[in-house]
Each structure stands twice: as structure tokens, then as C-alpha cells.
User: Fold this.
Amino acid sequence: QTGLNTNPVTFYPLCLSPDYKHVLFRNILYETSTGKQIKQFPFEKKSIVTAAFSPDSKYIAFSTCAWYNLWTNENWISLCEVSTAKEIYKKSMSKRQINSICFSSDGKFFASNGEKYNLLIWETETGREIKNIATPDHIAASLCFSPDGKYVFTGQFYGTIHKWEIETGQEIKTGAEGKPFANHSGSINILNFTNN
Assistant:
């Protein structure tokens, strides 16, 4: 029988690598087939708020958020190499609240929410911030790139989904009334596209 020996916690990341070989829980990497712990990333485990694998499963982007997490007074984003567990770079985020990260389908970029109501687009290779999109009154609880990499969808804490065009930084609204992409009740904590 295979199992991961972990303690129940809240506000800590749990994610599966796209190649299905690894599971990340907080700062620990496990082998999916055996449940064996194989890597530990160089962070205090209680400080990690969110994490995401790159599409090729070679990298993991981590973030922490002092607003969410009482275990740290820092806000940062870090990119680490999966094979070595070494940190490639870390970007200080000042007072920005980073509670969501996602990669584009080609892995060249990743998105995060930023200070107050901003959506940030980063270049994966360099860690350079290439786009800062103002999203007035929209605090993202979840993020997702469109498969063509032209748009980022944000799920909000108060139940709306918004579609943002990366090139222009504009929100793409629906209908003559210019409504958000979709409305739901409750927080939108997960967004994803189907494979087709």
C-alpha cells in the first residue's frame, strides 16, 4: 500500500506534476508511485502558501504571503528546479499578496496576483515582470492561462470569473451589458481548462 504520511493542515499547497511522477506538499516532494519523500525545498514549510509545477515538470514556482500566513512576514515568489531542489531565483514582493500562481501552457510565463488588485505576468527563465495589469476591485483567489496563452482568467473571492487579455491588459467582458465572464456564488478557488 502506498501513502503519504502527512499531517492535516490548511492553506498549504498540494499539487501533482504534469508528468504524474511527483506530488508536492508544502516544501516536500514525494514520488507518486511509492509515496517516498525524495526532495525538500529550501523554505520553511509553514511559510509556503501556493505552488505550481511548470508544464514540463522541471520547475516549481512557490510563493508566500504574510497576509495569509502568520508564520512569515515576507512576501515573495521563487522558482526552483525539481531535479535538484535548488532555488533559481527569488523575487521580493514587498506588500503584495500572492495567493495564486499558474504557468502558461508553453511554460515560458507564469502569472500571479500582486499588490492589492494587480495581475502580474512573469518570464519564467529570467523572473522578469513583463506585464502588470490593473484589475480594479478584483482580488484573485485563482488564476488560469488560456491554452493559446493570450488570456488569463481570474477567479475572485466573491464569486466572479474575469477574462483578461495579456497584450492589452484589458478585461474582455460578455454581452451588451459588459458583464464579467461568469458569476457564481462563493469563492472561486480553482480554475482550469479541459484538455480538448
Remarks:
- The longest strand covers residues 59-64.
- DSSP finds no helices and 16 strands in the chain.
- The CA atoms of residues 78 and 90 lie 4 Å apart.
- The two ends are 34 Å apart (CA to CA).
